[in-house]
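In the laboratory, one determines a bound structure by crystallizing the protein with its ligand and collecting diffraction data. In a computational setting the workflow is compressed into a single prediction: the sequence and the ligand go in, and a structural description comes out. We illustrate the idea with 1,3-dihydroxyacetonephosphate.
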Amino acid sequence: MEEAQLVDEIRRLKQEKRVAVLAHYYTAPQVQRLADCVGDSLALAYEATRLTSEVVVVCGVHFMGETVKILAPTKKVLLPDVNASCSLAESCEYTAFKKFVEAHPHHTVVSYVNTSAAVKSLTDICCTSSNALAIVNSLPKSEKVLFAPDRNLASYIKAQTGREDMLVWDGACHVHERFSVEKIVELKGQHPNAKVLAHPECKKPVLILADEVGSTAALLKYSQLSTAKEFIVATEAGILYQMQRSSPDKTFIPVPPTDSTCGCNDCEYMKLITLQKLYLSLQHEVHEVLIEEALRKKAERSIVSMLDLSKKLGL
Ligand code: 13P
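The predicted complex, in structure-token form:
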């Protein structure tokens, strides 16, 4: 099918079947354009608690589908591609993480939502890049914290909170770890007035160069409010679509990965979500995310705690 026809079919199926489509900022622009809600991980989790339709397609990676299913267990939650994984979630395997948690009792376990439902079941409170700092800050200084799975976000939080004793799982996001100081310095040379925006999953030397460090939603907001005209963006390239859309008069420059000649840093998992797969997902109601109820309940506690605290903090 041609793209225009696919778009029409997706719109028709969404309406006919009354299906909600949620999409993360890292998905392809064509997919974002068709979504009822586009957001960062925190926004998508909130949206999961407000769903009115019985079926929802999550255009994002696997843990995002799981998060929606955990929060909306009576809904039919679909993922257009089951292979849309997340390197961060993969870097924190359940059995190994369980051992790590058991080896460090008396710690409050704070895990990123970029984890499996099984890892969430071992977690006291989840966080996303939007609220990680606030969540860790809300814990009394006397409380020992075990943070998983992103070592770069953890190192950023340590620097911001002074909690140097925070115990950290050694995981990382392959997309954000690819950004290098050299490429950013090179781009800064070409665009000296540009502001550098970076996601906290980038390595520390990259974050030091940044004018703003934040979640995808925070970086988008910064780009809207800033008086600067040019921005060097060190996060997954999908967000550039929303940045450009809301600030058409500004220039957004993606930072290419060090190890590639391509112009932007795409997450290949996010880009598995194509229009064709969204169409098939809507048409055949595949691929359903299913979580065993006992596990779902255990995982739910950590996400609900995160949402409750985030609401209280006004996030
Ligand atoms: P946020 O949605 O919290 O910005 O993080 C996205 C993500 O998955 C980064 O790897």
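The chain is about 45% helix and 15% strand. Keep in mind that any predicted model is a hypothesis to be tested, not a measurement.
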